Structure formats: structure tokens, C-alpha cells
Amino acid sequence: MLDCARSQEVIVAMSDLAQLESQILAQIAAAGDEAALEAVRVSALGKKGSISALLSTLGKMSPDERKTEGAKINSAKDTVTQALAARRDILKSAALDARLKSETIDVTLPLREAPAEQGRIHPLSQVFEEVNTIFADMGFAIAEGPDIETDDYNFTKLNFPEGHPAREMHDTFFFNPKEDGSRMLLRTHTSPVQVRTMLSQKPPIRIICPGRTYRIDSDATHTPQFHQVEGLVIDRSSHLGHLKWILHEFCKAFFEVDHINMRFRPSFFPFTEPSLEVDIQCRRDKGEIRFGEGEDWLEILGCGMVHPNVLRACGIDPDVYQGFAWGMGIDRIAMLKYGMSDLRQLFESDVRWLGHYGFKPLDLPTLAGGLSS
């Protein structure tokens, strides 16, 4: 009698299967995202879900009922499973579309430059490389020395005696006197490097001396710290003809012109005799200076034959050896070549200025490929 009652309860429960299936399918269709859909799946097919509960009742049925009702429950389960899979695909596609819209990339925007393309070499560094490249091609070595020098190397051995008026031409930064009364100083030119080279090497000597120099001066064309490059040649037979050729070839290569006129005017420097100042032909037009043409002249450097007193002070016999030297401002020739109006801008660290006047790091100057190409 009890088994008959249980069987009747199962049949009654099974009569609600169609309604349950419709209800679950409606919940699946209403699920707005994958989390909601998963909740429907668990409530229907989970361990304690509604369809799982119906499957657990099959053990209470007779074999014939189990066969009939079991097929109905499994059919409902398959229908729900397929509906879940279909809805999941729809929700995944919608979620992907929403993500793509929120993470849109405008492919028409220009690419960001690589760091090697964004960075810029300072014009002074570029000009240093250009100068070194030109003179290295002529067979010159590069010599360097300390920025803090002795009075002896900066003045005395260069034929500036104590009290000589030419010392006043150099507004010098002196350090406090030492106990013996001597004073160190910031070098006013790179000529002390020439002195150190002559004291440490025997002729023949062929060097350039690029580096920082210091004088008490500041305006649009002068700064307290600036840059120079000087050259020195010492051997038995060097003469002014060699000097003129070197400077002529340098100016043609540096300013990247095929022809350039130069004139040499008498001047005075304590360390050279005779001393000369060099002008180059140019044309001033609308704020620009063009070299190798025009009717104007521009002073660019000083030079001369090394004074015998300087050779003697450095232990070189002036009756056997002679030589010539020259010096020019790196900052000045950089301004002339690249059209800069104010020397002080070279030291202001303005990134916008550097972006305009700077050079790409990988574009190294070469004589074959062009110094500033």
C-alpha cells in the first residue's frame, strides 16, 4: 500500500516537468550575463538543482515507470543544457563586443617614436664630433688636459710673463692662494694641453685640443664657460703654408661648401710669432650667413707660428724645430653653422630648443656621408 502511494507522488511530480522546463528556459533567456546564466545552471542542473531532484526520484518508481519518466527527464535535461550552451555563446559574443568598443585603438594615429628617434644630441656634442672627424682624417691625434690648471701652464710657459698686459685679456677665475702664494685657476684656453703635450712628447707632434674653457664674461656671444678647439703641429719643416692649407680644408669640410675664400690679417698673441687672425668670406642675408659667397668677411679664429720662447719653455730647441698653432671657439662656429642667435641658449637645457637644433643619436658625422646630414 505504501509503494503505491509513493508511485503516485512521483507521477504527480513528473506532471510538473513541462512547466519546470518552460520556467528554466525562460530564466536562461532572461540571463543578462554569464554570472546570471551560471546561477540558472546551478539551480537547474546542480547537485541540488530542480532537474537533478527529479532524476533522484527515479529510484522510487517501478521499472516501467522509470523507463518512461526517465526518458522525459533526460530529454528536459538535454533541452536545458543546449539552451544554456546557446545562451552562453550569445553572452560571450556580446561581452567581447562590449570590450572591443571600450578598448578601441585608433589605428590612424601615428606611431610613437622609438627612444633612439626621440632623443637628441646637443649641437655642441655634434660639432665636437664633426671637428674631431675632420682633423682625424688629416692625421691629428686628440689631446686632453685638466680644467683646473697652474698659472705656469696657463700663462708663463705660453710667454705671458708675470705682470704682462696680455694677462688682462683673459678675465680669469682664480682659486684662493696656497700656502706658498701660488694660485690655481680655471684654464682660460686649451693651450695648456699643448704645453703638457710638448713637455711629455718629442716632436713631431700633431694634435688638436678640444675642451671646456672659462672666463669671467657673459652676454649674447660670451658665456663664463665655453668650448674651444686648438691645434698644434711641431716638426722640423712646418710653415705657414701648411697652416693655411689645414685651416682652408677644415673650413670647407666643416661648413660643407666646395669653395671658400679666406684672408689672414696680422695680429698679436703672446704665444705665436707671427700671429694672424683669419676671416672667411660670407654673405649676410635675412639673418642668415652663407659661406663661400658674398662680399662680406667674418673673423673666425686666431693662429700663428709657435713663439720660440714657448718651444724653449717646453724643452724643444727652436733652432731645430718649429711649428704652428691655432684656436677657435666651438660654440661660435656652432652658432655660425646652425643659425643660432644667442650663445646662452646652448646652456639653458630647454628640451624644446634641443628638439629643434639637436641631432638624432644614430646619425654620426662622417666626411663621406656628410657631417650634418
What does this protein structure show overall?
There is one protein chain. The chain has two domains: 2-102, no CATH class; 120-357, 2-Layer Sandwich (BirA Bifunctional Protein, domain 2), CATH 3.30.930. 42% of the residues lie in helices and 20% in strands. It contains 13 helices and ten strands. A hairpin with a 2-residue loop joins β7 (272-285) and β8 (288-291). It is rod-shaped and about 135 Å long. Mean pLDDT is 84; it is low at 1-12.
Which terms summarize this structure?
about 375 residues; alpha+beta; BirA Bifunctional Protein, domain 2; 2 domains; eight-stranded mixed sheet; two-stranded antiparallel sheet; 13 helices; about 20% strand; disordered N terminus
Helix content: 40-55%
Q: CATH homologous superfamily of the largest domain?
A: Bira Bifunctional Protein, Domain 2
CATH topology of the largest domain: BirA Bifunctional Protein, domain 2
CATH architecture of the largest domain: 2-Layer Sandwich
Name of the level-1 CATH class of the largest domain = Alpha Beta
**Which sheet architecture does the biggest sheet show?**
8 strands, mixed
- By DSSP (H or I, 4+ residues per run), the number of helices equals 13
Give a count of the beta strands, DSSP E runs of length 2 or more.
10
> What is the typical, i.e. mean, pLDDT?
84
Compute the gyration radius: what is it? 45 Å
Broad shape? rod-shaped
Q: Outline the low-pLDDT stretches.
A: 1-12
Number of domains: 2
Q: Would you list the SSEs in sequence order as H and E?
A: HHHHHHHEEHEHEEHEEEEHEHH
Share in β-strands:
15-25%
From the helix content, strand content and strand pairing, which structural class follows?
Answer: alpha+beta
| Termini separation | 107 Å
